[in-house]
Specification:
The chain is α/β, with parallel strands linked by helices. It contains 20 helices and twelve strands. Strands 5-2-1-6-7-8 form a six-stranded parallel sheet, sandwiched between helices. A three-stranded mixed sheet has the order 4-3-10, sandwiched between helices. Helix 4 packs across helix 6 (144-158), helix 5 (123-133) packs parallel to helix 6 and helix 12 crosses helix 16. 48% of the residues are buried.
Length: 467
């Protein structure tokens, strides 16, 4: 049996990668299975439920028209309970039968700045680096780099052979970037032998993942029980749409995913760019704007004509001209993709919260929004439609600064002291646009400042007009 070890048993993995492998196994191909676990002591109830259910759980999917379907997912054959030393997780990773180590740790979990330099000053990362320098230590820490280093070190010592490191997060060039962070971590740990081994025995294909998967509410379990008769303790829901595009570069084999709809390609870049710039950035736009209007759910903002116009104009005016240029056509029908995305966001059955989507803005501005601004500015083109998104986030951040958000805002990449200082500045727009972490090479560009200032005036009117 070939094993895919997955780190991060959150809702997205169970609604996405685990589903594809389940469907492949349903065709009769049982040559692969998933073993999964977490590297932090969260999701304790869900993990306990999955262990009790032998990895089985129910996935509820909902179409934009409200049609619900139920599927029991059985591709996770073993769930590893959390332990601080992560010994069982490391042992599985070092097993020769493990051919793929995949992971979902959210965008901010990679500690990379605009230049893909690892932020070794981050407290969690620094603690993991100290542990990694003690090469005999079994305490790998709580970051993906600390855990992967421990797994790969054990694998090297065991002579377990090559392995693919498969990033499944919403991160542009996710394979390349997480690999860069890993190699910087290993080099900072002073383990040159491991660095050479990783370079020779692993690969990190880029991939693009897509499926809206809100945090499961209690009523999901109630609907599952009514529909299936099973009192499932770890059910979840997702939209009916699902997509996975992967570069076909694997070090030790892979499942025949193409048989169940995974797109195996030479380069994921055009798919990734369309998804990140159109879907991810639009999602954030609607979440920030909806929050400012006092809305709770994404679908509410999507159906608000003013908010929808912000998202539609951003894609139409600025993104599509970047992704579909003369001599460089996109393989994707971007206009149709834009409309499908908005239809998906308008699905009232998903009840995806603004709180979930609005999180991690300090990662999403540079990852999802800045590339379009940078490209347009480099060609001397207007950026007014895109500037609406950072202006919305600035107003959102000011609400957080004043303690006026209706929910707790989570942002792994945000330094609260810096964020408060931006909001307290005499000219918050100029201070915001000068932040190097958010804007990289265009930080302080007068064209950016002017466009965001004009957009901020529009946001101010939007916030203060009757909803």
């Amino acid at each position: 049996m070939n094993i895919m070890l997955h780190i991060g048993l959150g809702s997205f993995h169970r609604a996405h990668q685990a589903v594809y492998l389940h469907r492949l196994r349903e065709t009769g191909d049982h040559s692969w299975a998933i073993v999964g676990g977490n590297i932090r002591a969260d999701m304790a109830e869900t993990v306990a439920a999955l262990i009790a259910q032998d990895g089985r759980y129910t996935l509820e999917t909902v179409t934009p028209d409200g049609v619900r379907a139920y599927e029991t997912i059985t591709s996770i054959e073993r769930v590893i309970p959390f332990a601080p030393d992560l010994a069982d997780l490391i042992d599985v990773g070092a097993d020769a039968d493990t051919r793929i180590v995949s992971f979902t740790v959210t965008e901010a979990g990679y500690y990379l700045d605009a230049g893909d330099r690892l932020d070794l000053s981050a407290q969690d990362l620094a603690a993991d680096l100290d542990a990694a320098r003690a090469q005999g230590a079994r305490r790998p820490g709580s970051t993906i780099y600390g855990v992967l280093t421990a797994i790969l070190r054990a694998r090297m010592r065991a002579g377990a052979g090559p392995v693919t490191l498969l990033n499944c997060d919403n991160l542009r060039h996710n394979g390349d970037r997480s690999r860069s962070g890993l190699m910087q971590f290993i080099q900072a740990a002073g383990d040159d032998m491991l660095a050479r081994w990783v370079d020779a025995h692993t690969c990190s294909p880029n991939g693009m993942v897509d499926r809206i998967t809100p945090r499961p509410a209690p009523e999901v379990a109630e609907r599952v029980k009514a529909a299936t008769g099973w009192d499932d303790r770890a059910p979840l829901m997702a939209e009916s749409f699902i997509q996975w595009v992967i570069e076909d570069r694997f070090a030790a084999g892979r499942p025949a995913w193409e048989q169940v709809g995974v797109e195996m390609v030479d380069s994921v870049q055009p798919y990734e760019e369309a998804k990140i710039r159109i879907l991810n950035a639009t999602h954030s736009c609607i979440a920030w704007a909806g929050t400012l209007r006092g809305m709770r759910y994404i679908h509410e903002g999507t159906h608000d004509p003013v908010i929808r116009s912000f998202a539609h104009a951003y894609v139409t005016d600025d993104v599509i001209p970047c992704l579909h240029r003369p001599g460089h056509p996109s393989p994707i029908d971007l206009v149709t993709y834009r409309d499908v995305v908005l239809d998906r966001f308008g699905n009232p059955a998903i009840r995806d919260t603004n709180q979930r989507v609005a999180m991690d803005g300090f990662s999403k501005i540079p990852g999802f929004i800045r590339p379009t601004l940078t490209e347009r500015l480099s060609r001397g083109e207007p950026i007014d439609s895109t500037a609406m998104l950072p202006a919305l986030f600035l107003f959102f951040l000011q609400r957080w600064h004043r303690g006026q958000l209706a929910y707790t805002y989570q942002d792994q990449a945000m330094d609260p002291a810096v964020a408060h200082a931006l909001c307290d500045a005499g000219d918050p727009v100029a201070a915001f646009c000068a932040d190097g972490m958010l804007w990289g090479p265009i930080a302080g560009d007068v064209r950016l400042v002017d466009a965001v200032r004009r957009a901020a005036d529009r946001v101010s009117r939007f916030v203060n007009e009757p909803s």
